[in-house]
Amino acid sequence: MPDAAEDNLNLQQIVDPAKLRKALNAIAAKHGGATQEARMAVLAEVKRVNAEGRDVARKMLFDDGGGTACAMRISYLQDEITSALYDYASVHVYRVENPSKSERMTVTAVGGYGRGTLAPGSDIDLLFVLPYKNTPWTEQVVEWILYILWDMGLKVGHATRNVDECIRLSRSDMTIRTAILEARFLCGEKELFRDLGARFENEVVENTGPEFIAAKLAERDERHRKAGDTRYLVEPNVKEGKGGLRDLNTLFWIAKYFYHIRDTRELVGLGVLSKREFNLFVKAEDFLWAVRCHMHFLTGKSEERLSFDIQRDIASGLGYQDHPGLSAVERFMKHYFLVAKDVGDLTRIFCAGLEDQQAKQAPGLTGVISRFASRPRKIPGTLDFIEDKGRINLADADTFKRDPVNIIRLFHLADIRGLEFHPDALKRVTRSLRLINAELRENEEANRLFLSILTSRRQPAIMLRRMNEAGVLGRFIPEFGKIVAMMQFNMYHHYTVDEHLIRTVGVLSDIDKGDGEREHPLASKLMPGIEEREVLYVALFLHDIAKGRPEDHSVAGARVARKLCPRLGLSAHQTELVAWLIAEHLTMSMVAQTRDLNDRKTISDFAEKVRTLERLKMLVILSVCDIRAVGPGVWNGWKGQLLRTLYYETELMLSGGFSEVSRKERAAHAREELGEALSDWSQKDRKAYLKLHYEPYLLAVPLEEQVRHANFVREADTANKPLATMVRTHAFHAITEITLLSPDHPRLLSIVTGACAAAGANIADAQVFTTSDGRALDTILINRELPDDEDELRRGASVGRMIEEVLAGRAYIPEVIARKTRGKSKKRPFIIKPQVTISNTLSNKFTVIEVECLDRTGLLSEIASVLSDLSLDIASAHITTFGEKVVDTFYVRDLVGQKITNENRQTNIVARLKAVLAKEEDEVRDKMPPGMIAPQGSTRRSKSSASQG
């Protein structure tokens, strides 16, 4: 066991070793040591002891909250069980009266078990060490122990080697070397264990420090890369993720290898860690072990990812409570990320210091440490800093104390000179944070330097992240400190709030440098013309700074900006512009994704809010950066297209070019262009086809698409097919397009969206147009899933066939969806109160119904079906998904084309929709008739456009 005070662990409550051995000896006496009856009795006894011991450990974890103590208790339990099994096997099953030198072994714990800590679901890593080669006796004893452990349901990793093999393999295999470094004696021949330790120290460890350190640092970097290379993922891996337990293990491995220590506390005496830093290490380790043990106990397995499904329960188990602005689970996760940050600080500074020390001892080494071989030299223009082996360092120990502005200047110089940070410099920054006080925050030079870092044309996001990890950002800007490590309990945001803000600056920097032209063509086009680029950088850096407060974070954030911007040196005009951008930072993306962009009222309302082209340009760039920095897969080309459409329509209105007359003229011109493009058609066919389309279609659909649709309709008519589909992919937009020709039907939107849900397709947009002869020409856009075009085309064709099957009455949506969702987990960790709002002010022609609730398969179809039940004609629908939450907006009229103004009817609509959203009805009735092909002359629908965020 580690050197922790065992009397505080109450180990006798976990297992009584003497009592366990007495019970096993009694079994041997009763049944005979080697009989099958004895084996079954032994197995039953150790299973009982293990279950009872773990149950006690779980209860003690809830009582005292000690994570490390829990891990040590479970390790102690396993120690005593393994030792008792070894004794039983060697005495009662395979007893040797006069053992030879080869009939000896030592059983050692390695890996995490070797450190004397085990989580409830951890693997049991054992190394059976032999003096020479395997003998029948050693093979039998090892096999007997392992089979008992496996039959107990434990996951056991094991190896059987003699001492020579251990030494030889550890020289060539870094994993085996690390395992033996952590080896801990359990039972057997102790002299053999001492021999292994002495030879390992003399023949493997001696003079190989640089090799081991470089390997462990490279291993750490690769592990971080696989885990997402950030410690701020909202579903972190507690064991392998950045800032997790494995990072602490790495610190211990390197310290033990280099300093030849057995316990981390020895680093204080060696001057490697201060007492405060050691205490931080202990607290971080204890917290992470507590979280990990709770996770394993809760799930009943070796679960290492702190997923949304279990975060609430873990928070409850650890005793967190709701506070205004932050729920209990959000407070727990903020604590988790603060601990992960502490772990990152400790391991980064510690490992970098060792790396640097090893480089001094072996300057000829290549790879990780060879780049630090040059001598320190002065940095031009400053006497306070030097360049040491490619890193910036302090000229003397009093650099920060002499002038606290140097704390900010350190990062500024590193930015403009492209330098890494010397570990000593970062350590002194961490230990000098108290110097960042009110006086420094108001210092004009300090704020000028910070603004220069924030708006740098090099790598501002990297420098801001370094400042944040060192604790400088939260001290220099206290409002930022409040959102450091803050997570939002939802599936939409992938990172903590501070990491998201820094990433938005990074996206803006890429666009600013011209690196985002392919993915963000409009933003890249507008950025060079932005005169107030500092305003954009500051607005992005601050746009979510008021998260976690009871009030609207956009309003509160604008208030923070009005206070902070003058301190940073921005003018009154710039300050108000930043405040406006923060107050409206969600407006453009929400309008683009939840409103009908072909409704003039949408554009006029948005233009009234924006008012100037300068604001419009900045807002579209800010919106792009904000969405892009939410997390992987959130941004796609379709969202970019929606923002571009809203931008160009608003730009036209702000410049005085938008009017009803121009709209009619543009529609007439579009009809003429389509006629010219169909010049290879006969005049009769061309004239008949041009009469099919209404104004919304001609204005919304590009000419190229209109021609493609014309040929599609012509082919379907020639083949006499009442139902037809065609598919194509859009790689840039990450969208697959399914075009449907069908007789119109009042429930068509419900039917089509239900068919897509049944086929497993996630709708990103649906353009629905009605022709003058009573048919629907619908374009359904679904999110792309497969990277290869041919595979995606086959998938799209499958979705198209499902739509045709449902419309033809050959498939029944509820049955297909039920089959699709059968057997899937019903547990839903998120709680979203269903909301329904009705407005008659958002459109001149339509009533707008907006619903907000927890997303689920087939939801859009259910809502559309209810609206049809209520005799509402859906003219336009917009489906916006934010992780687990969906916001659906419907533009509707009654069947005579009027808005819904009657209050009683509005109340009924709200009640019916809320019942569906909350699943308050016993079941959602699906009233679609078996045959879905409607007769000519059915209810005509106007354009429907659905966009998913």
Describe this structure in words.
This protein is α+β, with helices and mostly antiparallel strands and 949 residues long. The protein folds into five domains: 6-202, Beta Polymerase, domain 2 (2-Layer Sandwich); 212-367, Up-down Bundle (Four Helix Bundle (Hemerythrin (Met), subunit A)); 374-436 and 456-476, no CATH class; 491-658; 722-917, 2-Layer Sandwich (Alpha-Beta Plaits). 55% of the residues lie in helices and 11% in strands. It is built from 41 helices and 16 strands. A four-stranded mixed β-sheet has the order 3-2-1-4, with helices on both faces. Strand 2 (124-130), helix 6 (136-151) and strand 3 (156-162) form a beta-alpha-beta unit. Helix 7 (163-172) packs parallel to helix 9 (190-205).
